[in-house]
Design brief:
287 residues; 10 helices; 6-stranded mixed sheet; alpha/beta; Rossmann fold
Length: 287
Amino acid sequence: MSVPVLNSASTAKSSTPLRLVPARRHWRRRLPPGRGRVLDVSGVSVAFGAVKALDEVTLEVREGSFVGLIGPNGAGKTTFFNVVSGFVTPSSGRVRLGGHCVDGWTPARRGRAGLARTFQNIGLDKQATVADNLKVARQGGSIGDELRVTLGLRHGESSEYRAEVLIERLELADVLDEPVNRLPTGTAKLVELVAALCRRPRLLLLDEPASGVGAQERAKLGALLRDLHRDEGTTILMIEHDMALAMSTVEYVYVLDFGTLLAEGPPEVIRKDPRVIEAYLGKAASK
């Protein structure tokens, strides 16, 4: 049976205010507030030769929370995402997703379990069009590990309408027929986000989603992320250097510095933490 490909006609602007449709949660058990670790990382260490990229890092993300992971360049943030996604094997420590130990799981298997991720260097098929990438996101198919974990692919509900809603929300209808490699970096980042959200991941890892995104698109991105969290209860762990965006969206923050966990707490506490100010934020950010 043929599956319709998204086109600009199906994503034309509507005069009706756009609202995200609440997720059908048949695939996950609802848990009382404050319970249910979607991600539980304990004592993870990673070394590249003599360089210790992560040193005994422990972190948890609970269902329905929006958590930030910040720190200076080289702090180990992307390495941490690579461990959670299955692209890097830690020398010690444990990673659990939804209560399951995922040691030895491939990135594809983690994607099927409901993990989705965006990448600093855009994990889409750059030769394919935006529409084709989103078609893969909706249906699955024969793709590589990086793309599969980007899309958070697993079996479940149809996601065509959801993709159309997100395309309209981010005003991407005009680029559906464009190859990803011809898009500005910021636009490609937004396409990657739509792809990751198509199948309602249980845990969404965002690696600097605002990098390369212009001020106007950044405002739309921030609003979308807040809506996803508020209206759908999407569980998000986000790396972001834009502190205005990060501090206005997340509920809780972990700070990495030289591979170690420097601090954790709500944004208002982290913003005033002397250790974080000295290592990363600078005095201006604390005001």
